[in-house]
Amino acid sequence: MTIILVSQIRVNAMAVVRMKSTDFHCLPDQFGKFSNIGDALTCSVDQVPVGQAIYTAGSLFNHSCQPNIHAYFLSHTLFIRATEHVAAGHPLELSYGPQVGQWACEDRLNFLEDKYSFRCQCIGCSQLNLSDLVLKAFHCVNPNCNGVVLDHCLDNSELNKLKNFPGVPRMQVLDPFLKVDELKNVAHLALELTNNSFNVQSGSCLNCGSNCDLEASDKARRKALICMKRLQDAIVSKEISTTILSDASRALGVLRSILHGYNKHIAEAEDNLAQAFSLVGDFRSARDHCKASIKILEMLYGSDHIAVGHELIKLSTIQLSLGDPSAADTINRLGLIFLRYYGSHADFIFPYLQTLKREANNLTQEGRVT
């Protein structure tokens, strides 16, 4: 009996979490009048596990790396909310942790097999999708090509998906959610040729077939990420020197030159620089980097994903500090995203949303007056 109970807890238990973020209650009524709120402007929101629990209904939902429902907690009470229209008879699926856009396919499979003892076969893991191709990919050496170059980590998890697609016209079998046009732009050659006529190799561009020196590119990537780590440490200590900031900016340039434009390392670097520039009071540069990060996250997750919503919070507060009237549109957009995931509980879980909404309303009223 003990063994059965332990197994059930391991497989069926849900992690009870609380949201942890920088507190916005101290923000002023007029963002633009302050120059020392950079730490709040680019706050991060994390889910902090506080326990494990088995729910009679909630623990029965199957996992998907592309979930259509979202689970959240108020104290120990579990709430489940659909994040998209679900047709009658279609299963409701939530994420047990990893999602498409967050982790590469092979990493998701290993995590789920280790923690929950099953091999994921959801649509996100069984079909080709843009996020898994570009998440950790290098850029083609051909400057006129937007193709992805796979490293050894991606080859194993994506090779079968490429080869299992039927012959021309392949793209007709893809779900629209999988960003068909973008897939064509980054992997045209792999998708158009038959299984036997195209052999995916590490370092080969999936779009034009050019070869990339993975060893040199990976060495440059690692060196650039070391610079970004120094910037992250400086952000934590709030001691950002001109040297660290300029080194990180150059490191971002290196990452942009060797990694695919939708690689998550670039999104993270853009986000780090947005936070750093906010801390030193350069909100215009912070805004540019934050927008660049959002553009990548939209490609990895989709435009209405909660990960994009959290980044929009950062962008909106930077815009408010600049007196940028477009902050109203940003706040309205992020409000809809949080409503989609948390419903009427959004303002309670994230109190600073109410402050942002008031600022958006003020901007709208000022626009009508002028």
UniProtKB/TrEMBL annotation:
Residues 54-97 form the SET domain. SUPFAM superfamilies: SET domain (SSF82199), TPR-like (SSF48452). It comes from the Eukaryota. This is SET domain-containing protein. The lineage of its organism: Eukaryota, Viridiplantae, Streptophyta, Embryophyta, Tracheophyta.
